[in-house]
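Practice record 12: protein with heme C.
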Amino acid sequence: MKTVAQALAVVALGLAFSSSAIAFTGTYTAGDGINGTVHDLGTGHNGMDFQASPADSLDRICIFCHAPHNTYRLSPANGGPGAGVGSGPQAEDAFDYLPLWNHELTGNATSYTMYQNGLGAPTSGDKASQAMANGMTPGSTSLLCLSCHDGSVAINSYGNASQPIASRSSGGATIGAQYLIGQDNYLGNHHPIGFDYDAVQTVDVGIRAADTAELGGAGTVRTHLLGVGNTKMECGTCHSVHNKGNTGETLLWRSDVNSQLCLTCHDKGDDPGTAIP
Ligand code: HEC
Ligand code: HEC
Ligand code: HEC
Ligand code: HEC
C-alpha cells in the first residue's frame, strides 16, 4: 500500500515531467506535407504546445518560420540594402539565404564547434576526414534549423515590430531535450555538415558521387545539396523540413531501414534499396 509521501512523490514527478516534456506524440506519413507533423507548431495537438504567444487566432503553420512581409533583411554583404533602408531587422552576414524568414535567428551563427573525431584520428590516407581537412561552416539553411534545434531561441519567438501585432509571438518555450541538436553551440558529435560535398568526394574514395547516388526516389544526392551550385551538405541534405517529397521517416529524404540512408552516400556495403552504380 502506497504511503501518502510516495503518492505525493509520484504526483510531483508527473508534474515535473509534464511541465518540461513537450514531445510530439502523433504520427505522420513521410512526404505527405507539413500538416500534422512535428513542424506543424501552431496548434496544440499531438503532444505539442508551442502555440503563439499571444495566441494566433488563425492557427497558422508557416508563420513560425516565414511571413509574407517585413521579414529579416539580408545584410549588405549578402546583397541587402544596409541600415536605414527598408523595414524589418537586418540579419548577420552568416545568413546568406533567407526565404522570407520570420523566426528569431540564433545569435550563435558564427560560434559552433563543428564535427570532430579526435586527436588520434588518421590525418592522411583513405580514412582521413576530408570534411575536417577542408573545414566546415554551417550554411544559412542549417543555421535556420539550429535557431530552434540548438535550444538557444524559443520555438514560439517570431515576427518583429514592423509587422502586425497579430503576426508576432514572444513565447519562451524552447525545444524538448530529445530534439536538441547543437546544444551549447556544440556540433562536434553530430554528422558533419557545412562542407563542400564534391571537394570531399573527389578525395574520399568511400563516398559516392552526388550526381549518381539516389536518395531512394527523392532524387539524387545532388538534388539535396544546398548553396550556390548545389554543393554544400547541410541538415536539409538528409531532412525535408516541410515533409514534402521525402520517402523516409523522421523527415528523412530516404528511409534508414537497413541503413539505406547511410549506404546511399557511404560505400560501405551493398545498398539493399536501389541499385547504385
Ligand atoms: C519549421 C520551420 C518551417 C515551417 C513551419 C515552414 N517552413 Fe518553409 N522553409 C523552412 C526552411 C528552413 C527553408 C529553407 C531550407 C529548405 O528549403 O530546406 C524553407 C523554405 C521554403 C521555401 C523556399 C524553398 C522551397 O522549398 O520552395 C518555400 C516556398 C517555403 N519554405 C514555404 C513554406 C510554406 C508555404 C509553409 C507553410 C505551409 C512553410 N514553408 C513552413 C522552414 C519552414
Ligand atoms: C520554428 C522552430 C523550428 C525550426 C526552424 C526547425 N524545427 Fe525541426 N522541430 C521543431 C520542433 C518543435 C520539433 C519537435 C519537438 C517536439 O516534439 O517537442 C522538431 C522536430 C524535428 C525533427 C524530428 C522529426 C521526427 O519525426 O521525430 C527533425 C528531423 C527536424 N525537426 C529537423 C529540422 C530541420 C532539418 C530543420 C531545418 C531545415 C528544422 N527542423 C527547423 C522546431 C523547428
Ligand atoms: C547524414 C544525414 C543527416 C544529417 C546531415 C542531419 N541529420 Fe538529423 N537525423 C538523421 C537521422 C538518420 C535521424 C534519425 C536518427 C534516429 O532516429 O536515431 C535524424 C534525426 C534527427 C532529429 C530527431 C531527434 C534525434 O536525435 O533523433 C532531429 C531533431 C534532427 N535529426 C535534426 C537535424 C539537424 C538540425 C541537422 C543539422 C544540424 C541534422 N539533423 C542533420 C540524419 C541526419
Ligand atoms: C548525403 C550523403 C550522406 C549520408 C546520407 C550520410 N553520410 Fe556520413 N558522411 C558523408 C560525407 C560526405 C562525410 C564526410 C566524409 C569525409 O570527411 O571524408 C560523412 C562523414 C561521416 C562520418 C565521419 C567519418 C570520419 O572520417 O570521421 C561517419 C562515421 C558517417 N558519415 C556515418 C554516417 C552514417 C552512420 C550515416 C547514416 C545515418 C551517414 N553517415 C549518412 C555523407 C553522408
